[in-house]
Structures are given as structure tokens and as C-alpha cells.
Amino acid sequence: MLRLLALLSAGAMCCYPQAPDSLCRLAALTDEEWQLLEGGNVVSKALKPNHERELAVAGVARVRASRECFLERFRDIESFKKSPSVRQIGKLSAPSDAWDLAGLSLDPQDVEALRDCDIGSCKVKVPVRVIQRLACEPEGSARDYSARANSIFREELLTYLQSYRFQGDRALIRYRDKDGPLSLAEQFHSLLSGWSELNELAPEFSNLLARGSPPALENVEEFLYWSKEAFGLKPVISVTHVIIYQLPDRAWIASKQIYASHYFDASLAITLVVDDPADLSGHSIYLAYLNRSRIDLLGGILGGLRRSVVRGRLVGGMSRNLQQTVTKLESSCPTQTTSRGGLCGPVLARPSPQR
Known about the structure:
- By secondary structure, the chain is an alpha+beta fold.
- It has a single domain, classed as Alpha-D-Glucose-1,6-Bisphosphate, Chain A, domain 4 (2-Layer Sandwich).
- It is built from 12 helices and 10 strands.
- The strands form 2 sheets. The chain has an 8-stranded antiparallel sheet with strand order 1-2-10-9-8-7-6-3, sandwiched between helices.
- α7 (128-135) runs antiparallel to α8.
- It is elongated, with a radius of gyration of 22 Å.
- The two termini are 20 Å apart.
């Protein structure tokens, strides 16, 4: 009863019979937002953060494409994420080798920042061994230093990724760019444990993420990829561990950040792909993307102001990116005519969908 009262006081959640409950609860959709969604609009919004340095956003869309086609496109992550903001990207092989990172390079301003780096005082987040090795490098030309910095960075990043593949979360980086080490493992598990909607709606998936070790289930697949993307004033190099968990009528996808060169202390994105229960042809889905990130800029006196600015940009970016994704999918995935009832009309539903 107390939980019901809390939900009612928080605002009217969407309750149309054709609205998948997991979709509504995960993205905290209201009736008004559901109607916008059914009208062909993309819905993007900020969610309530669970930590003072956390930002949370959600985006939802209905897409005329099958779940299988979406997953096929998503697995080709280099093409799927292609956009002006993604400057470099590469999917890592298993096991990873040096060729996987051959196309990755530090931004010139990050190379310069590394010249003055010390453990506990650095303007770029890198593995500690990068700082230690560069400190032992002889003085040389700017070109020589840039080449060595990039080479050492790629070597140490590869070593880190190989350790992560073998040890899981036990190998996650401890950032040393500021006073006192910051454990990515602690930040990630704190973020995950506070995501109550995910833990309630997909407990088996949440438990899989919490175990922090490589998955070994038949309906689970995974891959790693790296990217360099525009974000704020500095491009961010990041590495992401993708875990796809498939069920009969939906797929859960976790995009777990395991390294970032700037801004992020931890980040977890959840993509939920749900078959449209009103479309018996299987060529229509609901696509929800949610991200919770801990940002190092959001602490301190100016944290509130920065939060407002960054949150607005993230929500706007979410809307644009999701609309681009919808357009790409609907132009490349085969579709069939769907049978749908109106919001108040009859609905042809799939038998016994998971709620």
C-alpha cells in the first residue's frame, strides 16, 4: 500500500493496456508521455539522480523494425554509433591485441597534459603505469613525445583490458588523477545497487552485472569497444563493455563504461528493446535508452549550476541521437504492415508477454 501511494504521489504513470509495464516503470513514463510516444514522437527526459554527482536521463521511441534487426545493427557498433560526435571507434577482438587499438590516438591537448602529470595531479585520467613510464622518458621533440605518449597509452590500455577480460571487476581501474584513488569498481557497484527500477524489473540481469565476472549463459553475449567522442570541452576516450541478455519478448543491453579519460567516474547505460505486443508480425518494437553517470564536475559549490547545464545538454542530445537511431533503423530494417488498435480500441496482443 505504501509503495502504491508513493507511485501515485510521484505522478500518474502510464497505464494503457498495451503499454509494457517494464518500459513505463524503467523510464518513469506518464500517460501524457505515452500518448506522445504512440503519436510517433521521441520522448526524452531527465530522471531523478541517486547521488550528488549523478546524472540520469532516459529516451524512449517506438520503432518500425524487428528486435532481431535492431540487435544485428547494434552488434555492428562501429556503424551503429557513427555520427559527427564520434571521432574514432573500434570494436575489440577476443582476445584483444595491439591491432584493436591501432586507430586510437590521444587528443593533442591530452598529450600536452601528460607532460605535467603526477600521480594524484593530472588533467587526464590514464592508467598509473602511463604516468610512471612517461616520467622516465628522455626529453625529445614534441613529435617524438607525442608518438611515445600514444604508444605507451595504447600499450597500457591494452594490458588493462586484457586483465579485465580475465579478472572482471577485480581488475577495474583506480583513477589517480586527483588526490586519493577513486575505485571504478566501487563507483559502478554503488551506481548499480541504487538503480532500484532495474533491480526490480530485471533481477537476473542486474545480478549478472553485479557479479562483475565474464558471463557464461546461453542467452548472454558480450563485446568490448573503444571510442573517442566529443563531450564538453574535451574529447573523451572511453572503453565500454556491452552485455546483451535476451528473453523471449525482449532484450536487455548493458553498456558498462570500464574506462574514461575525462569527466566520468562511472557510467552505466541500459537499453531495453521490447516487442510491441500490439504487432503480431514482430516488426515493431519499443526502444528505451537510459543512462546513469557519475560526473566528477558535479561536486563542490558550482555543482548545482553545472548539473543544470549538463543535464539540459544530455536530454537534448538524447532526443537527437534517439531520433537518428529511429531513422536509421526504419530505413534499413525490413518492415511489414502492423495491426494496431487505437489507445481506446482493441489490441491484438502477443500471448503471455513478460511484464
